[in-house]
Amino acid sequence: MKVSSHRDIETAAKNFLTHPAFLGILLTLILSLTGLFKPTFLEFLDYKAFDALSAPGTDADISSVPVIIDIDEKSLKMHGQWPWPRYKLALLLNRLHAMGVRAVGIDIMFPEKDRTVIDDPSEDLPENLMADIGIANVRESAGYSDRLFAEAVSRSSAVLGFQFQFESLPEDAACVLHPVAVNVMQRGGGEQPRGGLIEAAGVV
């Protein structure tokens, strides 16, 4: 009887350890612990796999993955210190638009006019920028760099950065942007929603 009991226990234990449900629970536990502690070796393999998948290939299809265009040290050495003249940013937007980029988010504010160039430039501008308004008009037009940048933004699907102003503003302050009409829908008899919208006095 004792021998039979031992065999029954061994058989039951073997069946339990090889049961699909137990194996599934064990695998889930291992994966959970791996994701929690992130072993260095697996993290290294993850980075290598990402590099391999991100390597340029022969596929010409446009990716839907957002791409960050960074102004790094290499860019500063090539194009000069920041801030750059806005006609250079216009050239960048024109190239992105020509490449078929669907949307561009510019995490930069432009609260003042371009002070990196003078109104009557002596430097040569790229031909594809001069063709937009003509080189004669460029040399005679004040604020040509801002104008080129504004036209490039209007032609593309670019969105500029902005900042809300919460301090009180003078009543006679000029409003460049039209106020947004907002309609709030709610069920009959419900409480008036609070804090759903940002109540700013102005925006830059």
Summarize the structure.
This protein has 204 residues and is mainly alpha-helical.
Structure in words:
By secondary structure, this protein is mainly alpha-helical. It has two domains: 2-54, no CATH class; 73-164, no CATH class. It contains eight helices and four strands; from the N terminus they run H-H-H-H-H-E-H-H-H-E-E-E. It has helices spanning 2-17, 20-37, 40-54, 73-79, 86-98, 127-133, 135-140, 144-155; strands at 104-106, 158-160, 164-165, 202-203. A two-stranded parallel ribbon has the order 1-2. A two-stranded antiparallel ribbon has the order 3-4. The longest helix is centred in the N-terminal third of the chain and has 18 residues, at 20-37. The chain is elongated.
Cross-sheet strand order for the largest sheet:
1-2
Q: How many structural domains does the protein architecture include?
A: 2
SSE ordering: HHHHHEHHHEEE
Number of helices: 8
Largest sheet: 2 strands, parallel
**How many β-strand stretches?**
4
Beta-strand portion reads under 5%
In whole angstroms, the N-to-C terminal distance is 88 Å
Protein structure class: mainly alpha
Rg on CA atoms, Å: 31 Å
Low-confidence stretches: none
Mean pLDDT across every amino acid position: 72
